[in-house]
Design a protein that fits this description.
Layout lengths: L11 E5 L7 H12 L3 E3 L15 H13 L5 E4 L6 H4 L5 H6 L3 E4 L4 H9 L4 E3 L3 H4 L4 H12 L11 E4 L2 E10 H7 L12 E7 L3 H14 L7 E8 L11 H9 L6 E3 L12 E3 L2 E5 L4 E4 L9
Parallel strand pairs: 1-2, 1-3, 3-4, 4-5, 7-8, 8-9, 9-10
Antiparallel strand pairs: 5-11, 6-10, 7-12, 12-13
Helix pairs in contact: 8-9, 9-10
Length: 302
């Protein structure tokens, strides 16, 4: 993976809205946590609303394409997730990102954009979108800034829950389970052979999580995985508390793969969302309950 150059204070950062509508007040609150350090660039267009989208497909695609191609932009941070990137990813040019690598930040629907970056051979950051930044603890906001600016690997994830034993190492890829599964079978599917898969989810009941994981297994996408890291599963239980739980489904579906599976990472749609580098090598140790990051998201070059 190509590591984009690290950011420095004052660098130009593009904010884009490639998916769902962006609530202005929450966006502005989140942007304050970035504007003190970087020169944020965004257009009033990001507040457009067309049903469940932040404007029409062409506007969102062109905005993202311009940010990717602009040599003055050092990073691209998504304003919000939601839904919409599947509709425009086919019109994006991975070669443009490879020619001028810059870090891309987001999660949830932005999983599609992380897959796009991976296809270009460029590392990215699974981390908070701008509208989420206003809601996160200072430590998570600082973790994002550290990951954007430091060429050193970030601190490990510790104290994780073991769903399956073992040790595994490989590049970290993935994000939202629903999007990872929807990309499967398309030209934009993640190449998971030899990788460690990161998964998180929101609002999907246990049987839907089962369906997504089973579909990935049937496709062969999980056959050569080296490990799985499970973040938060928010609002994924049956309303009446009926078994199995979402985590029990994950354990049952992934536990037979013969690879380490760790859960409880503070990543996703909940009160925490620790930024982590995608495309960087990690080492899972189920015995220790840890995920060690062996690489950074960015390079030393300014």
């Amino acid at each position: 993976m190509i590591k984009p150059p690290r950011l420095q204070p004052g660098d130009r950062v593009a904010i884009v809205a490639p998916a769902g509508p962006v609530p202005r007040e929450r966006f502005l609150e989140g942007a304050k946590r970035l504007a003190d350090r970087y020169a944020l660039h965004y257009d009033e267009r990001i507040f457009d609303k067309q049903g469940f989208l932040a404007g029409d497909d062409r506007a969102r695609r062109d905005e993202l394409s311009r940010a990717i191609a602009d040599p003055s932009v050092r990073a691209i941070i998504c304003a919000r997730g939601g839904y919409g990137l599947l509709r425009i990813v086919g019109g994006l040019d991975p070669a443009a990102l490879a020619r001028a690598p810059k870090i891309i930040v987001g999660f949830s629907d932005v999983t599609v954009l992380h897959a796009f970056a991976a296809s270009a051979g460029v590392a990215s950051i699974h981390g908070p979108v701008v509208t989420q930044l206003a809601l996160l603890p200072d430590a998570d906001a600082q973790a994002l800034i550290d990951l954007l600016e430091s060429p050193a690997p970030p601190p490990p994830l510790t104290g994780l829950t073991v769903l399956a034993p073992g040790v595994g190492e490989g590049p970290l890829l993935g994000g939202n389970l629903e999007l990872v599964s929807r990309l499967c079978g398309t030209p934009h599917a993640l190449a998971l052979d030899g990788a460690v898969l990161l998964l998180e989810e929101v609002g999907e009941r246990p049987y839907r999580i089962d369906r997504a994981l089973t579909q990935l297994a049937l496709s062969g996408a999980l056959a050569k995985l080296r490990g799985v890291v499970v973040g938060e599963l928010i609002g994924c239980e049956e309303k009446d508390g009926a078994a199995p739980s979402a985590l029990e489904v994950v354990a049952e579906r992934l536990g037979s793969l013969g690879i380490p599976v760790l859960a409880g990472a503070p990543i996703g749609h909940g009160a925490r969302n620790r930024a982590v580098p995608l495309g960087a090598r990690v080492r899972l140790d189920a015995g220790a309950g840890t995920v060690e990051f062996l690489e950074a998201a960015v390079s030393q070059a300014p």
